[in-house]
Structures are given as structure tokens and as C-alpha cells.
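Whiteboard transcription, Tuesday session. T.W. wrote the C-alpha cells on the left side:
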């Protein structure tokens, strides 16, 4: 396990991984729409996609959505949490061509782990890169750009900074309502107050370093990505990315 003062390493704990996968992932507002938009953008840019990376893959939910449409594609799933990689191996057992890498993208050396894979048609990431400082986020986006082949596409489904405290409150209320409905549908008798308390006290909250969506889109344009946009957004949840131009 990584040690030190970093807060993101809470993700390497089984308890945190399980709590996210069982109690929170399924309750993310508009999760299905986010995956659908990711898929649409990838399909538009890379109709024949052969190789892609799911960065900070968790249990591989993004990779699974892509493999359902590209069953022959080679998926590379990367995460620094052993419990998450184990969950991803279980979820994607039907795709034997899948490669699982336990790497920490907090260090730029992570790209060396991709060398044997070759250049990528697509990189996707879900709710992960926001654990890095802004400087490191920009470096990661640059690293992704250079891993992509010309025409390759990057899609980030991400937690971004709220525009104001008022917007943050709207997001919190949406998430709590969504979590309440998710748990009630599974027979839970938790009150909204309990769900709200658990949401506000979630162990990985302190690991968040949120950056505004507009700022992150500007970084992508500076790096050289084309067609950069927020493809979908609701309060603090966004799907954004871009395409590495053919002549680059
Ligand atoms: C909120 S979970 C999201 C998982 C998955 N992408 C999804 O959309 O459900 C964040 C994931 O990013 C991983 N992660 C966070 N920081 C990382 C790092 N520096 N290197 C690799 N993985 C990291 C965590 O272990 C965790 O699996």
C-alpha cells in the first residue's frame, strides 16, 4: 500500500472500495446517461476501436460498458487499489483479452506500464482523476494525449468543482435523494437524515480536489485536444474530453 500524507490512498482499503461499489456507485445521479454519452463519443471518434484504457477503473464499470459494444477490443484496466482490481477481474471475467494493471497514476512513471500495450484508441476515466492536484491533473491529461494515437479519444466522467455554494447544495441534495431512493428500492429503512450523514461523512470525501469544468476543458485545449466540450453536465457531475487530432 502507498504510504505518506496522501488522502487518495483510502481507496486502497477494502472497506472503502466495498462501500463505494455497494453503497454509492449505483446511486450516482444520471450514471446510465453518463455511460451512454461516453459510449456515443467514443463510437463517433473510434468506430473500429481496438485498444482502450480505463484509468482508475474501480470495478471496471466503464470498461464493461465499452466492451458490451466492442467485445473484441483489448481493454486495459488500471487502478492502484488491489480490492478494486479484484472486483474488476470478477466483473470482466468474460473478456479474457483484458489486461489488469496495478499502477499509481499519481506518478508519471505509470505510463511505462502501458508501453507493452502500444498506442491507444481511447482512454476513459470515471470519478478518479479529481484526487490529484491541479498540476498533476494537467500532467495526466498530457500523458493521456501522448498515449493516444492520432484520432484517439479521451472521455472523463468526473466530479468537478461547483460553481457556487448554492450549486453545491443542489448537488448534495440531488445525491442524497438519489442515494435514498437507491437504498429504499433495496429494502433499506434508513431515513434521509441517516443517508445525508453517511454522504457527508464518506471516508473518501477528503481525497477530493475538485477543479472547475471550464478550467479543465481549457487545459485539454492547451494540450492540443480537439472537439473539447462538456458533453453532459448536472451540477458537479460532468462528462468531458476531446480527440487527439489526426495531424499531431
Ligand atoms: C470513485 S472510484 C471510481 C471507480 C470507477 N472508475 C467508476 O467510475 O466507478 C475512484 C477510483 O480511482 C482509483 N484511483 C484513485 N487514485 C488513483 C491513482 N492515483 N492511481 C490509480 N487509481 C486511482 C481508486 O482506487 C478507485 O478505484
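and on the right, the sequence the group agreed on:
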Amino acid at each position: 500500500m502507498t504510504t505518506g500524507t496522501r488522502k487518495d490512498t483510502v481507496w486502497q482499503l477494502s472497506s472503502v472500495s466495498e462501500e463505494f461499489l455497494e453503497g454509492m456507485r449505483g446511486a450516482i445521479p444520471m450514471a446510465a446517461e453518463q455511460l451512454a454519452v461516453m459510449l456515443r463519443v467514443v463510437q463517433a471518434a473510434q468506430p473500429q476501436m481496438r485498444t482502450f484504457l480505463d484509468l482508475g477503473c474501480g470495478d471496471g464499470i466503464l470498461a464493461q460498458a465499452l466492451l458490451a459494444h466492442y467485445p473484441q477490443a483489448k481493454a486495459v484496466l488500471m487502478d492502484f487499489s488491489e480490492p478494486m482490481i479484484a472486483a474488476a477481474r470478477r466483473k470482466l471475467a468474460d473478456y479474457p483479452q483484458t489486461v489488469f494493471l496495478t499502477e499509481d497514476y499519481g506518478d508519471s512513471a505509470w505510463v511505462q506500464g502501458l508501453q507493452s500495450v502500444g498506442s491507444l484508441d481511447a482512454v476513459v476515466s470515471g470519478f478518479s482523476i479529481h484526487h490529484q492536484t491541479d498540476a498533476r491533473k494537467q500532467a495526466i491529461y498530457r500523458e493521456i494525449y501522448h498515449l493516444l494515437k492520432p484520432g484517439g479519444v479521451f472521455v472523463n466522467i468526473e466530479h468537478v468543482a461547483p460553481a457556487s455554494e448554492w450549486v453545491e447544495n443542489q448537488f448534495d441534495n440531488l445525491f442524497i435523494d438519489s442515494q435514498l431512493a437507491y437504498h429504499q428500492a433495496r429494502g433499506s429503512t434508513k431515513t434521509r437524515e441517516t443517508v445525508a450523514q453517511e454522504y457527508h461523512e464518506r471516508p473518501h470525501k477528503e481525497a477530493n480536489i475538485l477543479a472547475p469544468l471550464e478550467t479543465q476543458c481549457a487545459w485539454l485545449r492547451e494540450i492540443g485536444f480537439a472537439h473539447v466540450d462538456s458533453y453532459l453536465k448536472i451540477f458537479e457531475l460532468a462528462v468531458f474530453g476531446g480527440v487527439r487530432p489526426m495531424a499531431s
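Someone added at the bottom: The pocket of S-adenosylmethionine is lined by residues 8, 11, 20, 25, 56-58, 61-62, 79-81, 84, 104-106, 126-128, 131 (CB under 6 Å).
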